[in-house]
């Protein structure tokens, strides 16, 4: 039985009871369009459940990690990539910043607009149309792991271009041994730190810090890899 497990850290771990955390199904013959459509449909069928299950998750550690590395003062321009129902847009706004969401699922985009009052662009990862050099920071909390590895260099290049000079990218991904494929109804890539570094360095970023979540637990109980990067 599939279950959605709150990680106690602002993220959600999807696990298969009694089996490996990442029981992948082969996806090598599927197009990126097929992958994106199926993953968004999975979230769409559970939109209200997902919003209720993640509404109160504490991501203050991740928000602080992004903000402390940005050169500038409020209000900062923040892009929330894969903003979902809008929880983090609301948090950035409450801190005095100007947050814009990007969301591929119309149901989530509508929720985010209503809940946060922020501008939300309906774009999936295959069809990003981002302004050049607009944002001080990009917040990608539990979103970039849905990008197939063959598409990731392009997506990272677009995020790099959307950041101002010295802008900062935050990402949090469920970590693994570079497995890739279907985990239930969602597609994911479970990078280890070394592989994730290679992608970000190749895209023109330098590493500022990384850490594992949730805080205060043994490493084997920290499924999330968070990292912060500066555009160079």
Order of helices and strands: EEHHHEHEHEEHEEEHEE
User: Which class best fits the helix and strand makeup?
Assistant: alpha/beta
The order of strands across the largest sheet is 5-4-3-6-7-11-10
How many helices? The count is: 7
Shape: globular
Could you give me the name of the CATH homologous superfamily?
Vaccinia Virus protein VP39
Structural overview:
The protein starts with a strand and ends with a strand. The chain has a 7-stranded mixed β-sheet, sandwiched between helices. With 232 residues, it is of the alpha/beta class. β4 (98-103), α5 and β5 (119-122) form a beta-alpha-beta unit. It has one domain: Rossmann fold, CATH 3.40.50. The protein is 30% helix and 31% strand. It is built from 7 helices and 11 strands.
Give a short overview.
The protein is an alpha/beta fold.
């Amino acid at each position: 039985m599939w279950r959605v497990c709150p990680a106690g850290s602002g993220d959600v771990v999807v696990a298969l009871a009694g089996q490996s955390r990442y029981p992948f199904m082969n996806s090598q013959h599927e197009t990126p369009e097929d992958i994106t459509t199926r993953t968004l449909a999975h979230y769409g069928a559970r939109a209200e459940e997902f919003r209720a299950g993640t509404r109160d998750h504490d991501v203050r550690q991740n928000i602080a990690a992004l903000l402390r590395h940005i050169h500038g003062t409020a209000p900062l321009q923040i892009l929330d990539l894969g903003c979902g129902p809008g929880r983090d847009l609301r948090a950035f706004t409450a801190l005095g910043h100007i947050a814009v969401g990007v969301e591929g699922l119309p149901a989530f985009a509508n929720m985010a607009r209503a809940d946060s009052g922020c501008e939300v662009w309906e774009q999936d990862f295959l069809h990003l149309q981002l302004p050049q050099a607009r944002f001080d920071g990009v917040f990608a909390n539990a979103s970039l792991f849905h990008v197939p590895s063959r598409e990731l260099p392009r997506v990272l290049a677009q995020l790099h271009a959307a950041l101002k000079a010295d802008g900062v990218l935050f990402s949090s991904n469920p970590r693994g041994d570079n497995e890739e494929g279907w985990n239930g109804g969602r597609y994911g890539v479970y990078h280890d730190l070394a592989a994730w570094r290679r992608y970000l360095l190749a895209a023109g970023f330098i590493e500022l810090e990384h850490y594992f979540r949730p805080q205060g637990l043994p490493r084997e109980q920290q499924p999330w890899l968070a990292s912060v990067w500066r555009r160079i």
